[in-house]
From TrEMBL:
Residues 29-48 have a biased composition (Basic and acidic residues). It comes from Roseisolibacter agri. Residues 60-248 form the Cation efflux protein transmembrane domain. Residues 252-325 form the Cation efflux protein cytoplasmic domain. Belongs to the cation diffusion facilitator (CDF) transporter (TC 2.A.4) family. SLC30A subfamily. InterPro entries: Cation_efflux, Cation_efflux_CTD, Cation_efflux_CTD_sf, Cation_efflux_TM, Cation_efflux_TMD_sf, CDF/SLC30A. This is Cation transporter. It is a multi-pass membrane protein. GO terms for cellular component: plasma membrane. The chain crosses the membrane at residues 59-81, 87-107, 119-143, 155-178, 190-211.
Length: 335
């Protein structure tokens, strides 16, 4: 998906008479061909990863929906807040997994004249919504747990334990299926965090059931709910933060802007680089645009190819470089 350099500025606007310098043109074909093989291989791998993550999301959704029904019934019968809290997470999981599955399909729709990047950002929006939903559910569970501390209610620990163990098994299976794709997709990571939260909730519910059953200490139920929620909030906040960072087109955390500038300016023939921008379009797709001053005409084509190669080594696939023979000063804003 690497883009060729916007290698020239063909015309000068009358109001920008102070601009000094011309850029060259006609370099697109060679620079684009240089990356065709790499992009084809990358796209093939991306398609395979997409199919794998979609299949994992589908199976996790089915398992979670079945378990949701079991936990709601079990929570009502046993009067367990920990179990109902876990069921609450399960409900958000069903929505999160369904949303992630839909987005995984919808984001693959082709681009259009009005959506030139396609619908890739839907993945980031889904991740943000999943993270926000987790934070909201966590707040509600803490509120309910505080009430249970003040007024403890009797529990059917045996029923609570049986359903919690079944939930733990399903959550382990779902988390295992989603774990691999969670490293490469914010969308899948959002769903994975939901499932991981339920897994922690199931572990906590099993522990609470055992404590209540052996000691009769009813406060174990709301206490476990709060401890589980604290762990979930940490991951949810990180997901929201990363999603917002992508939506605001911040520099990806694994890329150093100084390193990008250094690599570009180290290319033979490049005098300086300005108007440098690096951002993520979606998970795994990093873009870069820059203006590079290359005074000598005969060095521009080799410099362009070298800059594309340097960015590929840094994992930046979508590259746009405007070549200039001297720095083009920006036009003054209209008065």
């Amino acid at each position: 998906m690497t883009r060729t350099a916007d290698a020239g500025v063909g015309a000068r606007a009358p109001e920008c008479a102070h601009l000094r310098a011309a850029a060259t043109g006609g370099m697109d074909a060679h620079a684009h061909a240089h990356h065709d093989g790499h992009d084809h291989a990358h796209d093939h791998g991306h398609d395979h990863a997409h199919a794998t993550s979609t299949r994992a999301l589908r199976w996790a959704l089915v398992l979670t929906a079945v378990l949701l029904v079991a936990e709601v019934v079990g929570g009502i019968v046993s009067n367990s807040l920990a179990l109902l809290a876990d069921a609450g997470h399960m409900l958000t999981d069903v929505g999160a997994l369904g949303l992630s599955l839909f987005v995984a399909w919808f984001s693959r729709q082709p681009s259009s004249p009005s959506k030139t990047y396609g619908y890739l950002r839907w993945e980031i929006l889904a991740a943000f919504l999943n993270g926000a939903a987790l934070l909201l559910i966590s707040a509600l569970i803490v509120w309910e747990a505080i009430g249970r501390f003040r007024s403890p209610e009797p529990l059917a620990a045996g029923t609570m334990l049986g359903v919690a163990i079944a939930g733990l098994a399903v959550n382990v299976a779902s988390a295992w299926m989603l774990h691999g794709s969670a490293h490469t997709s914010l969308n899948v990571r959002g769903a994975y965090l939901h499932v991981l939260g339920d897994l922690l909730g199931s572990v906590g519910t099993v522990a609470a059931a055992l404590i209540v059953r052996s000691t009769g200490w009813l406060a174990a139920d709301p206490l476990v709910s709060i401890l589980t929620t604290v762990l979930i909030v940490r991951g949810a906040w990180r997901l929201v933060h990363e999603s917002v960072d992508v939506l605001l087109e911040g520099v990806p955390p694994h890329i150093s802007l100084a390193a990008v500038r250094g690599r570009l300016e180290s290319v033979v023939g490049v005098e300086s680089v300005h108007d440098l921008h690096v951002w993520s379009v979606t998970s795994g797709l990093v873009a870069m645009s820059a203006h590079a001053v290359v005074p000598e005409l005969e060095r521009q084509q080799p410099a362009l190819e070298a800059m594309h190669a340097a960015m590929a080594e840094l994992g930046i696939r979508h590259v746009t470089v405007q070549l200039e023979r001297q720095t083009i000063e920006p036009c003054a804003p209209p008065v």
